[in-house]
Amino acid sequence: MKKSTILVVEDESIVAHDIQNMLLSLNYDVVGVTTRAKEAVNIAKKKNPSLVLMDIMLQGTSGGVKAADVIYKKHNIPVVYLTSYTDETTLQLAKETAPFGYLLKPFEERELQTTIEIALYKFKMEQELKKREQWLFTMLESIADGVIATDDKGNTTFMNPKAESLTGWKQMDALNSPLEKIFLVRDEKSGKRFNRLLQPVLEAKETDVFSEAILISKNGNKTPIEFRIAPIKQEENRISGTILAFSNISRRKIAEEKLIESWEKQKRTMQGTMDAMAFTIEKRDPYTAGHQHRVTKLAVAIAERFGFTKDRIEGLKMAGELHDIGKIYIPAEILSKPGNITDVEFNIIKTHPKVGYDILKSIEFPWPIQEFVLQHHERMDGSGYPDGLKGNDIHLEARILAVADVIEAMVSHRPYRPALPIQQAIDEIKHNQGILYDKKVVDACLDILMNGNFTFD
């Protein structure tokens, strides 16, 4: 193991010689012995000892204190002070140089060794802490996110360059200022200012806070950001401050807007295509003109009772407008036949859900439109077509379309019969509630028809 090296700076030569002998007997290397402050600084610079033993008083002055300050701050070498007596002013000056220990002369070898080892250990720990602090500082300085630290009162203690850039505040101007003064954020939609941002974290009511907002800089610039606030915890989970990290999401917002715009354009194109397809089938079957639209209107009203999201309702609407698209392959003379249809003709009509599925399956919808169309004639007891599905194997959207389809078909004019009273349609779904039709869907539909102001027109 490498020996620690010591520089001895002692005003009295005899005492210096005794200290040197002690150090040698304790297996330390002595790189120099001097009585003068200036020479001590030069030896320290040249020899770079592990530690300096420094007499506070050199040649009747406090030159030892000044030399120790230079040796530690300029050459990063720890200093232990040697003293027998001194005045209060010199002692205070010595404290300000942050020595790593004191030895009161005269002292024993064991006391000398203990003081040196403790000082060397403290210095080692300090160096490791400095390295970690430098690593953390470099990381915070270079990351792309803004970072602000506060104390437990919410006052600013640190800002990295990105935080300075986004807020328009320099760290030196922001230090000790309340966070709300330099980090002014408003709700993106309402424009309402976020107040008491730190309180939930400082009061330990929340482990962290995350949100999106508009940051108003010192010069009034507005920047969309996302931010997160987390606590700084000490022993026993005591909160000593907070860390706020935030980033500029302008590019993401622009990309989101373009994506929404692209999606809206795609929806308009898709809707135009769907409308053209629906128009084509209804032109071939004038007696059911508007059927798909009216079914969709009732289906949407039912879905709203179920609490469907706006996006899910969009999918249901599209399926409703297309649920009979498969009839485009059924001969017009069957669709518009005024009398009763034969079993063969009915079997041809029953193919329209599968034909509709085949027409739509190659189109990439955001929802399983094809399956809704395929299943809208399935029944809860498995008696429906084309696949005889039962219960929850049928999409809820298809179960809603099934009820809406039955109601609309019964109350509308058909080539083989006049329109039926709404009460007869209501009796049909009530009678077969839970058998052919989903019980909850029927409940919602009955509530709409009997207690609401719904009309197909």
Description of the structure:
This protein has helices at 13-25, 37-47, 63-75, 88-96, 109-142, 161-167, 171-174, 179-182, 199-202, 250-284, 291-305, 310-322, 332-335, 343-349, 352-360, 369-375, 396-411, 422-431, 439-451, and strands at residues 5-9, 29-34, 51-55, 79-83, 102-104, 146-151, 156-159, 184-186, 209-216, 222-233, 239-248. It has 457 residues and is of the alpha/beta class. The protein folds into 3 domains: 5-140, 3-Layer(aba) Sandwich (Rossmann fold), CATH 3.40.50.2300; 143-248, PAS domain (Beta-Lactamase); 254-451, Orthogonal Bundle (Hypothetical protein af1432). The protein has a 6-stranded antiparallel sheet with strand order 7-6-11-10-9-8. Strands 2-1-3-4-5 form a 5-stranded parallel sheet, sandwiched between helices. Helix 4 links the parallel strand 4 (79-83) and strand 5. The protein is rod-shaped. The chain starts with a strand and ends in a 6-residue tail after the last helix.
